[in-house]
Automatic annotation (TrEMBL):
It comes from Campylobacter geochelonis. NCBIfam families: gltS. One of its GO terms (biological process) is L-glutamate transmembrane transport. This is Sodium/glutamate symporter. The keyword GTP-binding does not apply. Catalyzes the sodium-dependent transport of glutamate. The gene is gltS_1. Coiled coil: none annotated.
Amino acid sequence: MVETSIMEFKFAFFTMLKNLNDGSVVITLDFYATLLCICIVLLIGTVITNKSKFLYKYDIPVPVTGGLIAAILFFVLDVTFGVRFAFESSIKDPFMLMFFTSVGLGADFASLKKGGRLLVLFGIAVCCFLFVQNFIGVAVMSVMGENPLLGLLAGSITLSGGHGTGAAWSDVFMQPPYNFMAAKEIAMASATYGLIAGGLLGGPVAQHLIRKFSLKPTEKNYEGTVSDEVFSEPGKQRLITSESFVKSLGLFAFAMFIGTTISYMTKGTAITLPTFVWCLFSGIIIRNLFSYLNIHQIFDREVGVIGNVSLSLFLAMAIMTLNLVELTKLAVPLTVLLAIQTVAIILYVRYVTFKICGSDYNAACMVAGHCGFGMGATPTAIANLQAVTNHFGPSRISFIIVPVMGGFFVDIANALVLKLFLFLPMFG
């Protein structure tokens, strides 16, 4: 047995361990150095995304751009020079929980009344498709002899959930009893593909339906239903002050405290859910309870700022630490599955979503939105809607229903659907 000889160097912000036998080096960064790296990754991602027409056109998130560049750089350093970086992992979870809490705090039930019957029908279509994505994922991976968890990760977790949901669930799958160590790499790759595909598919599919059936806008049916400042008054702003920011931060802390407490108390029971789901639920309850009792009016723009910053920091950390070696081992089955999922959503929105929602112009617009967050994320869905309505005419009801569905409802439904799938014997 050959003994391993290690040389250790300690500095103010990092520790370096050098294996004298093979020359490999592991550099462990502390909290502050890790936070600095995350900020640098986001700045690099911002510059490159803004300069690239492709990345900018399809709304590729800045953390994804910067994080992938960093992950590739670290991969090259590891393979070529034997230098690896280990970051302070404790920084990641608080940002993840803050993001999902922001989703809950932004979920105003009053918005649901505006959607009416069409919101319910669209919700049915969206929920059913979550099952479709996961059935396809699990079935394809089972046939190919791969871990069925890969099917869930390249199913509704990332394609309907996006990068944030994918990163959160991958952390769950990397721990016992699942121990699927390639989960994070698969989740980030699937979510990135879905984001691009969702942006590419939504407009063309909706345009095909509009032209084939000669659909026209029917705005008169929904006059007076829109009061959402995000769309009716996009230029309107509210001043963020230190006092209001502290209040919003206090709401985040309150919701996260409740969510983490419930998660701890329900651990090992029949209602065990990931901590981020409980934080999302807590945010929803606080938002609507405070509104109903007229205790405090949630500052949506401020909540959005905190949530977006948290998501950016969380994603940058998650993506820049990807193990690309593990991802290359599963490239073939993942590519096959994502290709099948792409065909599936085209057929589903054409023959199910469009039909359920009334086969009219608004239904075609919601098809564009469903492609956006059914394969990517809510911002992609909104971009799809804007592209279609700018070309063919307004559909205000779509701008109410799609953000409500993609912004928070699909995350709740997704968590419940995934919980049902994880009860299957193959995941036991």
